[in-house]
Amino acid sequence: MAKLFLGHKIVSLFYISPEYEITKKKISLGVVLVLIAMQFYSPTKNISPGNHTQIFIKETNPSTDLKALFETSCYDCHSNNTAYPWYNNVAPISYWIDSHVKEGKQHLNFSEWETYSLVKKDHLLEEIEEMVVQENMPLTEYTYLHSNSKLTDKEVGEIVAWVKQTRIIYQLGKQPK
């Protein structure tokens, strides 16, 4: 224990009072109890029956390769059906994943494609292009555990070409008749 001499008193620099030790133990016990309780109250999972992207696929007509790419890199956070990994059953990870999925669906939900206006669809496609070109999607933390979801330069190029072609449909739909 380090000591400091101040005049006629010797003061310990690392002295921890017994009250602090008790408080520290109570806080630690409280954190453990909260983590245990969280295991019993997990968030509702984003799982729905049916083909969630059928309208999006039919309307935008991506290639077979792009369909597979969307499944591995996009749909878990941007559709009404998430394929959850085993670690999603452990809190607080389950809450973190739930938050990411909810936020992703707020920005773009392929399962809700038919509800978007032509203008919104065009804008969402523009955003898809921007996000993949800037390497903002898929999220880095997602690609750590889903390495097959990381986009190659070739895949980004395919997405960009598909977006440009598909946006024409929506832009023509906006033209006056």
Structure description:
- The protein is mostly helical.
- The protein contains eight helices and two strands.
- Strand 1 and strand 2 (9-12) form a beta hairpin.
- Helix 6 (118-133) packs antiparallel against helix 8 (153-173).
- It starts with a strand and ends with a helix.
Strand neighbour order, sheet with most strands:
1-2
User: Percent helix among the residues?
Assistant: 55-70%
| Strand percentage | under 5%
Work out the number of β strands.
2
What order do the helices and strands follow? EEHHHHHHHH
Question: What spatial form do the alpha-carbon principal axes imply?
Answer: elongated
- Low-pLDDT residue intervals, each spanning 5 or more residues: none
How would you sum up the major sheet?
2 strands, antiparallel
What integer value in Å does the Rg equal?
25 Å
Summarize the structure.
This protein has 177 residues and is mainly alpha-helical. Helices cover 58% and strands 5% of the residues.
How do the strands and helices of this protein lay out in sequence?
Elements: E1 3-6, E2 9-12, H1 18-40, H2 54-60, H3 64-73, H4 75-78, H5 93-107, H6 118-133, H7 140-145, H8 153-173
Antiparallel strand pairs: 1-2
